[in-house]
Each structure stands twice: as C-alpha cells, then as structure tokens.
Write a structure and sequence with these properties.
alpha+beta, Cyclic Phosphodiesterase, Chain: A, 10 strands, binds adenosine-5'-triphosphate, binds magnesium ion, RNA 2',3'-cyclic 3'-phosphodiesterase activity, RNA 2',3'-cyclic phosphodiesterase, ligase activity, ligase
Length: 174
C-alpha cells in the first residue's frame, strides 16, 4: 500500500458487553488459532480495500447520505469457513441490516467502487486458523445503533481498526 492509500471498510462495531460474551463463548468452546481481540470484533458492511486518501471525503459523504433505523441482532449460529475461520451469524437477518448493506453497496458502486452486491452475508469473525470446530452455538444480542467507517492498519502483524467516523442510526422511539 502506498503512502497515499488507506485500507478502508464500513462496519458495525460489536459493543463491549456483546464483545465480552463473544470472547467468553470462544473460551467455553476452547477455540484456538488466531482469536480476534474484543476491540476488533465487528460485522463488515462493505469492504473497500486500498483507496487513495483523496477519495476519503467522498466516502464520508456517502456515509452521511445513508440512513437506517436501529435494529436488534442476535448471533445464534456459527459457521466454519476456509483457513480455520470461525464466525457467528444471525439466523434471522435483520431487514434493516440487509437494506443498509444493499443501499451502501449501490451508492458505492455508483461512485465507481468495486463492491460485490450479490452475496452479502453478515457475519462476525471470531477466529482464524482455528484447528477445531465449536460444538454449541451461543445466543448473543445487541441493538445496532451506529455504523462506522474504519481504517484498517497492520501493526507488526496485528490488525488495528481505527474509527474514522461513526454515524448514529435513528432510534425507534421509547
Ligand atoms: P488481515 O487481512 O491482516 O488478517 P483483517 O482481515 O483483520 O486483517 P482487513 O483485511 O483490512 O483486516 O479486513 C477488514 C475487514 O474487511 C474484515 O472484516 C475482513 O473480513 C473484511 N474483508 C477483507 N477483505 C475482504 C473482501 N475481499 N471482501 C469482503 N470483506 C473483506
Ligand atoms: Mg483480511
């Protein structure tokens, strides 16, 4: 990555309480491999990749233009993917999440970003290179009330996600 490029993605942060539950589940299931630290747990909305810094303002404007209501998400099943990746997913995909991801992909595509609009699958990665599979799924819920534009950096082999900007979602009332 050149100095003028930044690695970016839009995502949903996993709040502290839910992150603690995710970590506790990983411990209960004795997951090994590269466990994702609590502060990095998130659900990706759209991965942008290496983007010239000069386009940052445009991405901030796209973030600003997107609107969503708050919604509940419950991660109640897991999947094991290639390279020992273990992730948690919702059985019931929140309509507002599907809608936000679709709108975001469309806006980004219109602006010339290469986003896979066909197969969005909301998931929270908990481990990579895991030598074993979990046995029992958890049930971890939270209210999604914001989305974030992250910068992803590699710091001596560790991923660091910096929050560049977060946008609140509209509350559904009392
Ligand atoms: P590393 O690649 O060094 O292991 P990372 O995967 O944590 O670190 P990034 O590669 O910057 O960091 O990815 C940031 C987020 O975007 C992660 O949730 C990752 O799963 C997701 N992501 C990365 N590449 C893609 C891709 N090609 N398509 C969809 N999502 C992606
Ligand atoms: Mg990666």
């Amino acid at each position: 990555m050149s100095a003028e490029h930044v690695r970016l993605f839009f995502g949903l942060p996993c709040p502290d309480r839910a992150a603690r539950e995710v970590i506790a589940w990983g411990l209960r299931e004795q997951l090994k491999g590269r466990l994702i630290p609590a502060e990095n747990l998130h659900i990706t909305l759209a991965f942008l990749g290496e983007i010239p810094q000069a386009r940052l303002n445009e991405l901030l404007q796209i973030g600003e233009s997107l609107h969503s209501s708050c919604f509940e998400i419950t991660l109640d099943r897991f999947e094991c993917w290639a390279h020992g990746l273990i992730c948690l997913l919702p059985t019931h995909k929140p309509v507002a999440l599907e809608y936000l991801a679709k709108e975001m992909a469309e806006r980004l595509t219109q602006s010339g970003y290469k986003i896979d609009t066909r197969r969005y699958k909301a998931h929270l990665t908990i481990a990579r290179k895991s030598p074993s599979r979990p046995k029992q799924a958890p049930s971890i819920s939270w209210t999604v009330d914001r989305f974030v534009l992250y910068m992803s950096k590699n710091d001596g082999g560790r991923s660091l996600y910096l929050k560049l900007k977060e946008w609140p979602m509209t509350s559904n009332g009392p």
